[in-house]
Design brief:
184 residues; alpha+beta; Peroxidase, domain 1; 2 domains; 4 strands
Length: 184
């Protein structure tokens, strides 16, 4: 199993359990807060992945740190320690959030433009994408002067490139490519 697949397996199991019990948002909140604490604390990160620390001690410390947290999130932490998968924690959280967002119909769209988009334009673009995808869209706007003009959209692993730079590159390729009619 690849590392990403392992995280997705744990995330799927966690999501199914949380959904079944109606506690998806609680698990997301508590797990997110714990993952943020791990990211902010180099000491906690080292503790989690230290192979010389016995699993029983890790579990005990994690249960103390997460006391009052969601039961499913705490069970996940215990399971990760028991299976020596502590390093998968952040990946499990990211995969879990993707499952929650998918269930909510939320899609992240990255929009790259050559200049900053005015608010009315970005709002109109968001509405257009939402109606096209029939999902709720969260836009991330970035500026890259290298594209010269137009837009480049990324939805998941799909890219729609309507930038001037992309069109100029395609034109250059077609002009410099040998063609049968010109060679004969």
């Amino acid at each position: 199993m690849s590392e990403g697949k392992i995280a997705r397996v744990y995330a799927n199991a966690l999501y199914e359990a949380a959904d079944e019990e109606g506690r998806v948002e609680e698990v997301r909140r508590d797990l997110g807060e714990f993952v943020a604490a791990v990211e902010d604390s180099a000491e906690l990160r080292r503790f989690l992945v230290a192979e010389e620390i016995p699993d029983a001690r890790k579990s005990r410390v994690l249960m103390e740190l997460t006391e009052g947290g969601d039961k499913l999130m705490r069970n996940l932490l215990r399971l990760l320690v028991d299976k020596s998968r502590e390093s998968e924690l952040e990946g499990v959280y990211r995969a879990f959030v993707k499952l929650v967002e998918k269930a909510q119909g939320l899609v992240h769209v990255e929009v790259v433009s050559a200049v900053p988009l005015p608010v009315p334009v970005s709002e109109a673009l968001k509405k257009k994408i939402e109606s096209s995808l029939e999902k709720t869209v969260e836009l991330t706007l970035t500026v890259d002067r290298e594209i010269l003009g137009g837009l480049r959209l990324r939805v998941g692993d799909r890219v729609a490139d309507a930038s001037v730079r992309y069109r100029l590159e395609r034109l250059r390729e077609s002009l410099t490519a040998p063609t049968a009619s010109l060679e004969g």
